[in-house]
Amino acid sequence: MDVRYLQEEFSRVFEEIPKKTNMTPQSKELLFIHLTEEVGELARQIVNEEHRKEKFDKVNLSEEFGDVFMILCVLASKYDLDLSKECEEKLVRIRKKFNLD
Ligand SMILES: [Mg+2]
Q1: CATH code at 24?
Q2: Predicted TM-score of the model (pTM)
Q3: What is the dihedral of CA 38, 40, 42, 46, to 10 degrees?
Q4: CA 9, CA 51: separation in Å to the nearest integer?
Q5: How far is the CA of 88 from the centre of ligand 1 (A)?
Q6: What is the total count of domains within the chain?
Q7: What's the domain range around 92?
Q8: CA–CA gap between residue 59 and residue 84 (Å, rounded)
Q9: What is the pLDDT along the chain (101 residues), one digit of tens a residue?
Q10: 58, CA 20 to 30 Å: which among 12, 41, 50, 64?
Q11: Alpha carbon 88 to chain centroid distance?
């Protein structure tokens, strides 16, 4: 699966969820707050690996990466941004900046 497909599908799913539940659609602001929550959950696992080894859960670490990516995709879509295009352009810029092939 490519980034464009995932961004479209995550966004579609997030539009469908309020129709199937009593949840209200998430605004850009709420999505951003949700993103920071997910980043915090990812941070917790990273800290656990280093400082609270008994609480480290690699499966959950992987899930949190997915959560962060999912919310980032949905938020980017709310701004009509194409994350795939942006990532491709970013790769070109960073390769050029550091003189990489
Ligand atoms: Mg999470």
Answers
A1: 1.10.287.1080
A2: 0.92
A3: 180
A4: 36
A5: 26
A6: 1
A7: 3-97
A8: 26
A9: 799 999 999 999 999 999 999 888 899 999 999 999 999 999 999 999 999 999 999 999 999 999 999 999 999 999 999 999 999 999 999 999 999 98
A10: 12
A11: 17
